[in-house]
């Protein structure tokens, strides 16, 4: 395949076990990037989902579906899922042609998000998905793997160790720039009191403390040596760390976007406003990790936001939204009024008015 004849793009490969929030993340990220003015397309690679809840630019179900494979070959859902991904690998040209069509519609400045199935084998020890994205990499697709883990796993020592091992295996298997995320972090307030602060779990600190907690569980006592070996393995690699994410929180989403942009080398300036100097500033800001105005510069601020003082933060956020909405409505009204006055100056004043329609009149000293 001649790579010079094909489109290329930046993007994300979204992985994670069932229930981690991959579909919600893909939909939310698409909406967020669209709001920033960045062209984005979601590619569905789950053959079990013919109608995903997000706007899908390309879907594997147009090529093959899980139901078709199960019916034709008598396979169970796991075997059928592996067959579908192997079939996609065998029909790689179909995927590239579909991506070319999608990216051409975006004007050659494309950004793609790949939504994958929740079956762990696909990104832990089965090679088809890995080979597909290696081939895309050779076509100059600059992708980062975004691995989601439900934040609820930190409430249980055994679940947390399993989640870290799964994240580690995904990192070693996919061989892509990798970001691990604790999703649904806004739910930690309902988990009760955690044995350690949130930074202990995001930084995967000394697991010896957690190992003691794990060994105190009746069901885990007989696995003491295995537990110790797993903790030792994680610490020897020392690769896993987690970011936090609440999809509906703007600051949280922006932080993830900045991190993905940093590891892929993406430089983004809104259309029409990107001078060379501004783009250089965007590059070095991304590379240095600067994020002016970040309300959660430290993970303990995230814990304070979603666990310790959530009601207080929610109230302030509602007030900020109301203030922003009022300012936006006032600005729209003032723009309408200015347009009305401009029309009057050209001898085309709106009939029956003074050019101030839509601008709410308020007492002096108050704002609309």
Q: Can you walk me through this structure?
A:
Residues 341-356 have a biased composition (Gly residues). This protein has 368 residues and is of the alpha/beta class. The protein has one domain (3-313): 3-Layer(aba) Sandwich (Rossmann fold). 49% of the residues lie in helices and 10% in strands. It has 13 helices and 7 strands. Strands 3-2-4-1-5-6-7 form a 7-stranded parallel sheet, sandwiched between helices. The protein is globular and about 85 Å long.
| Share of helical residues | 40-55%
CATH class, anyone? Alpha Beta
For CATH, the homologous superfamily is named as P-loop containing nucleotide triphosphate hydrolases
How far apart are the termini?
61 Å
Which strand order do you get reading across the main beta sheet?
3-2-4-1-5-6-7
Total DSSP helices: 13
Uncertain regions: pLDDT < 50 for 5+ in a row? 269-276, 285-290, 349-368
Region (Disordered): 332-368
Biased composition (Gly residues): 341-356
GO cellular component, one term: cytoplasm
Keywords: GTP-binding, Hydrolase, Nucleotide-binding
List the helices and strands and how they pair.
Elements: E1 10-15, H1 22-35, E2 41-44, E3 56-59, H2 66-73, H3 77-90, H4 92-105, E4 111-115, H5 128-138, E5 142-150, H6 157-174, E6 178-183, H7 198-202, H8 208-215, H9 224-237, E7 242-244, H10 250-264, H11 276-288, H12 299-308, H13 310-345
Parallel strand pairs: 1-4, 1-5, 2-3, 2-4, 5-6, 6-7
């Amino acid at each position: 395949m001649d790579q010079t004849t094909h489109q290329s793009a930046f993007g994300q490969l979204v992985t994670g076990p069932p229930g981690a929030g991959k579909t919600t993340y893909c939909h939310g990220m698409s909406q967020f990037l669209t709001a920033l003015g960045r062209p984005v397309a979601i590619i569905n690679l789950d053959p079990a989902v013919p109608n995903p809840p997000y706007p899908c630019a390309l879907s594997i179900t147009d090529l093959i579906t899980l139901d078709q494979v199960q019916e034709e070959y008598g396979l169970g859902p796991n075997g059928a899922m592996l067959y579908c991904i192997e079939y996609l690998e065998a029909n790689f040209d179909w995927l590239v042609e579909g991506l070319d069509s999608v990216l051409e519609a975006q004007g050659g400045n494309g950004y793609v998000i790949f939504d994958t199935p929740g079956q762990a084998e696909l990104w832990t020890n089965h090679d088809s998905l890995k080979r597909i994205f290696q081939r895309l990499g050779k076509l100059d697709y600059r992708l980062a793997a975004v691995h989601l883990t439900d934040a609820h796993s930190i409430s249980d020592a055994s679940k947390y160790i399993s989640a870290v091992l799964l994240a580690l295996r995904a990192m070693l298997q996919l061989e892509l720039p990798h970001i691990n995320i604790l999703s649904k972090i806004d739910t930690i307030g309902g988990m009760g009191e955690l044995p350690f602060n949130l930074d202990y779990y995001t930084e995967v600190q000394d697991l010896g403390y957690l190992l003691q907690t794990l060994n105190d569980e009746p069901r885990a006592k007989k696995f003491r040596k295995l537990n110790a070996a797993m903790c030792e393995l994680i610490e020897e690699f020392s690769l896993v760390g987690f970011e936090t994410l609440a999809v509906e929180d703007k600051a949280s989403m922006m932080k993830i976007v900045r991190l993905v942009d940093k590891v892929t080398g993406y430089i983004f300036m809104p259309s029409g406003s990107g001078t060379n100097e501004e783009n250089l500033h965007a590059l070095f800001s991304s590379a240095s990790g600067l994020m002016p105005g970040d309300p959660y510069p430290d993970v303990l601020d995230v814990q304070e936001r979603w666990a310790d003082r959530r009601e207080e933060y929610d109230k302030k956020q509602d007030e900020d939204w109301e203030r922003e909405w009022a300012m936006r409505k006032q600005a729209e009204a003032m723009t309408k009024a200015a347009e009305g006055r401009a029309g009057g100056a050209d001898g085309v004043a709106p009939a029956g008015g003074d050019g101030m329609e839509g601008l709410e009149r308020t007492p002096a000293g108050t704002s609309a």
